[in-house]
Amino acid sequence: MAKTALITGILGQDGPYLAKLLLEKGYKVYGLIRRYSNPTFDNLDFLGVTKKIEFVDGDMTDESSLLHLIKRTMPDEVYNLAAQSFVGASWQQAKLTTEINALGVLYLLNAIKFFSPTTKFYQASTSEMFGISHDKGFQDENTIFHPRSPYGISKVYAYWMTVNFRESYDLFTCNGILFNHESPIRGIQFVTRKITDGVAQIKNGLADKLHLGNLDARRDWGFAGDYVEAMYLMLQHKTPDDYVVGTGENHSVKDFVVEAFSAAGIPDWEKYVVIDARFKRPAEVPNLKARASKAEKQLGWKTKTSFKDLVKMMVEADLKRYEAK
Ligand code: NAP
Ligand code: F7E
């Protein structure tokens, strides 16, 4: 019989890549969607998987919807990717961010405990938990958390609840502590996609400026398509555990800008970029770089896509979108 997986956050960036991977492995995939007046399936369409998914209704803030869902589907694996995932919005919407990202995880874990305790659970944890890190220039599973935003704080709660259900009830629960990962279907608010979309607009004469905040922040950027493999591998491992996933290389936002303008063949990026205080954050996370040696050794996972290839892939996809229009 085919294995079954429930993916929350199916309409976001990672959901479609993970769904594609699991469908290729023969899984039946359920995708949780919340009630929306006009949901967009563009990201699933981009990867050509929309019609292969069974959509189920529910909302991370509505405990009874999750209880019913787990009771009805009893999936072999749950991948919890749903979140208010934009750090910038989390100061203005701290309560909502907490309800979805923190309490939502508690509801889902309780539903598994009550109705399907053999279900394996993946929690989308994040390098934002490290925040301003007291480290040696990289972060791994032993690095202390010091989150810098309501988003990071909500994810620390979810991280520990995931660990606690493993320790208290012997459930198979894992945290993937993923560093930034991007793709042509990355949300338009995140800096990488904002840059590649802006570059494509400039190239097509639709804009003449790109407004950005802090160009000095450094991130460890990888490709989402590579990272969903790590999620899958965690749930196939013999024992549940928590893993850092990243490339081990970092770059500044400015490096990303330079590479993106160059990939589009536009000289003089300085002519177009405007530093705009609206995009600076009350508290910044200045420097993130993963040490993913545990995932590499225990899961056999490795990043495959270089920084240069990632930027090129995203710029080319955005150029194609505007050319098609
Ligand atoms: P994303 O594109 O923002 O997708 C998040 C998804 O969550 C969306 O489909 C959204 O649904 C759904 N969602 C939000 N609130 C919900 C609710 N109340 N009930 C049900 N669904 C809800 O995020 P992503 O980049 O794919 O990231 C996936 C997960 O990994 C997130 O948990 C994120 O915090 C975490 N993470 C991401 C990164 C990264 O670099 N991408 C790194 C580390 C961790 P709608 O489409 O209806 O809005
Ligand atoms: O910002 C700086 C900004 O919004 C990256 C989420 O997926 O990864 C993501 O969080 C950096 C920050 O991602 C702009 O200040 C400058 O230092 O692309 P971002 P993020 O905050 O790192 C983690 C791992 C997650 O878990 C999150 O869910 O870029 N920056 N200028 C800007 N950022 C944005 N968005 N817009 C700007 O104009």
From TrEMBL:
Q: Which Pfam families match?
A: GDP_Man_Dehyd (PF16363)
Catalyzed reactions: GDP-alpha-D-mannose = GDP-4-dehydro-alpha-D-rhamnose + H2O
Keywords attached to this Swiss-Prot or TrEMBL record, sorted alphabetically, are: Lyase, NADP
Q: Which cofactor does it need?
A: NADP(+)
Q: Which GO terms describe its biological process?
A: 'de novo' GDP-L-fucose biosynthetic process
Indicate whether GTP-binding appears among the record's keywords: no
Give the Enzyme Commission number: 4.2.1.47
Q: Which domain of life is it from?
A: Bacteria
Relate the protein's function as given in its record: Catalyzes the conversion of GDP-D-mannose to GDP-4-dehydro-6-deoxy-D-mannose.
State what protein this is by name.
GDP-mannose 4,6-dehydratase
Q: Which organism is it from?
A: Candidatus Roizmanbacteria bacterium GW2011_GWC2_35_12
